[in-house]
Amino acid sequence: MKTLAKLPVTIVTGFLGSGKTTLLRHMLDNAQGRRIAVIVNEFGELGIDGEILKQCTIGCTEEEATGRVYELANGCLCCTVQEEFFPVMRELVARRGDLDHILIETSGLALPKPLVQAFQWPEIRSACTVDAVITVVDSPAVAAGTFAAFPDQVDAQRKLDPNLDHESPLHELFADQLASADLVILNKSDLISPEDLARVRLEVAEELPPAVKIIEASSGRVPLDVLIGLGAGSEEHIDSRHSHHDHHHDGDDDHDDHDHDAFDSISIELPQADESLLLDALTQLVVKHGILRVKGFAAIPNKPMRLLIQGVGTRFDKHFDRQWGADEARVTRLVLIGQELDAAQLEAQLRAALSV
């Protein structure tokens, strides 16, 4: 009987709004016949990134596409990897004769090292290998010293005391994502000056092992041959990669001290709302509460299609993505990600701004 080769896995990590989903969409759109399974590790109750990726069916039926996208909804792979990741991988391993590659998009708040270490488990290690960990960097955010897009409260604290820079949970998480990388993409490189881009490259290089390559990209447009087939075997050397998170768990099995415990993800459901009013209200909310990310779908009165909204800081992208289903409730569902968020307060302020 023919022995199946190990199934290569690419892990895409990076901070909120860095462009991970865009990169995955680009990879799927340019799969060139490769049979690719996708695992989306969504932070929040709504599988919004999964919904976006399911639109990239490349000629598949909706049923086939849905079967290829697995969503781990609890968000933190560091904590949930054993509870959810293992059964998903076991199912994919059973089907590996029908697959050429697996792509995993981690949550913007997930730590990549524990996920890579999961590939040391015998049942997975015998069937899969981590082809590469790709870290996507938001170049303008790093150039601005915020690492993620416009985390106003954290950045204000950093500027008040430069000695606290590396103690910021944002900076530690950014450094840990780089520490696990086999390839780093400086995304949105077209949005900053060549001088700032060179400075970002130097800053990122300081956090990396010398062998890790750094490439520049705009909107995640990187040739697929550059992204897969790296053969890094990351699970073999991940234990030697230093991360700040290691210190939080040394000699302690208590996982209550995560770097990302300071982050909240809240879900809000609203009735139909005027598009401009909703975007204005969300912008005000982002500025007032230092919200890092807004993702969701909106129901706009008298519009037959739902509005997809993705906000990073005060930058919002929006487009009508599909028709509302005949039996589908026309409501607005949003996920807000930030620090020390009060769900009831945020919902009340949104409803007041929208007069609903």
What does this structure look like?
The termini are far apart. The chain has helices at 20-29, 48-54, 62-68, 77-94, 112-118, 122-125, 139-143, 152-160, 169-179, 194-205, 224-227, 234-237, 244-249, 275-289, 343-354, and strands spanning 7-14, 36-40, 69-71, 101-105, 128-138, 183-187, 213-216, 263-270, 293-298, 305-312, 315-323, 332-339. The strands form 2 sheets. The chain has a 7-stranded parallel sheet, with helices on both faces. Helix 4 (77-94) runs parallel beside helix 5 (112-118) and helix 14 (275-289) packs antiparallel against helix 15. The chain is built from 15 helices and 12 strands. Mean pLDDT is 79; it is low at 153-168 and 247-262. Strand 6 (183-187), helix 10 and strand 7 (213-216) form a beta-alpha-beta unit. Helix content is 37%, strand content 22%. It is globular and about 60 Å long. With 356 residues, it is an alpha/beta fold.
* Helical fraction: 25-40%
Sheet/helix structural class = alpha/beta
Sketch the major β-sheet: 7 strands, parallel
Number of strands: 12
Question: How far apart lie the N and C ends?
Answer: 65 Å
What coarse outline follows from CA principal-axis ratios?
Answer: globular
Total helix count?
15
Reading side by side through the largest sheet, how are the strands ordered? 3-2-4-1-5-6-7
- Rg, Cα atoms, Å: 20 Å
Measured by DSSP, the beta-strand proportion falls in: 15-25%
* Average pLDDT score: 79
SSE series? EHEHHEHEHHEHHHEHEHHHEHEEEEH
Any low-confidence stretches, pLDDT <50, length ≥5? 153-168, 247-262
